[in-house]
Amino acid sequence: MPAKKSVFVLLIGNKERGDVNHFQLLQEETAVSEGRRLDMDVEVAFAPGFDQLRTLKRRIFEAATTPLDAVVTEPANTATMDMMLNELKGKLGLVILSAWGPSIALAATAWGAGLPIAGVGTDHTKVGEIQGRQVKAQLRDGGRILYIAGPLRSSAAQQRLEGLKSQLTASVQVEEISAGQWTESDGIVAFNDWYRVAKARDPVVAVIAAGNDELAVGARRACEALSNAQHRDALLKSKFIGVDACPAFGQRLISEGVLAASVLTPANTGLALGHLHRFWANGTPVPLRSFTDARPWPPASVVA
């Protein structure tokens, strides 16, 4: 009986400090359950963006640990992604999650015989387009929105914002600010940074959209804490729209009325492990790039 394949899944965050967003937790849960179903040895670890490469190298070169067959990882930014590509080329299989760049296609041309390489993720432009349609559903006559994007160097954050803007007409004015990372606390900081400038003029917006549900919730918490009662009351009437719609978080908050809508983005660790399993089991080529299927949540939250 052939030995189980060993896969190291490296996600973003610091679990010991509780600094992990709900989508990353869904990624972990899906990786563990799919690994069990596919009879693979799957090990999941978390690391903040600045420590991802060191964490990866430590796991690869630890003599006492099981040798790896592949790494599945979500790099914090494109610079980290490129360093991972350089580190793993010719050594291990690699699936990059939720990020893309020309360096992946270039690396694939000479990755190494018998070693799979791929990018699996969400179509972030499509996510933004869906969110843009959700905004339009709230602003049929136009208006102002605040958009809180993910980190500046994140390709996912950039593509989601571009997709959203592509769906809006000139009647919708978009004010933008970027968060440091993807957590609720980052949403609080980003909103407060925006409000510090906006409060001198009219800070009231009809919609507060964000790159994920946690940033949207952070913005709402920041609104609730405003000392200016007039601004606080007006901003809490805004419609808060996020992305991810994890069942235990975003979907629950929509049912409670905390968020108005979200975009459901399934975990992509399951698709990544499925590609690797088929490659090892019967030689099925791994597609260089594939996507999970994003959709609006609730389904009626978009305009046609």
Account of the protein in words:
This protein has two domains: 145 residues, Response regulator (Rossmann fold, 3-Layer(aba) Sandwich), CATH 3.40.50.2300; 141 residues, Rossmann fold, CATH 3.40.50.2300. Helices cover 41% and strands 20% of the residues. It is built from eleven helices and twelve strands.
- Please give the CATH architecture of the largest domain: 3-Layer(aba) Sandwich
- What is the assigned CATH homologous superfamily of the largest domain? Response regulator
Q: Biggest sheet, strands in spatial order? A: 2-1-3-4-5-11
Shape: elongated
Count of DSSP H/I helices: 11
Q: DSSP strand (E) fraction?
A: 15-25%
Number of domains: 2
Topology record:
Elements: E1 6-12, H1 22-37, E2 41-47, H2 52-61, E3 70-73, H3 78-88, E4 93-97, H4 102-108, E5 117-122, H5 124-138, E6 143-149, H6 155-166, E7 172-178, H7 184-198, E8 207-210, H8 213-224, H9 229-235, E9 239-241, H10 250-255, E10 262-264, H11 269-282, E11 289-292, E12 295-297
Parallel strand pairs: 1-2, 1-3, 3-4, 4-5, 5-11, 6-7, 6-8, 8-9
Antiparallel strand pairs: 10-12
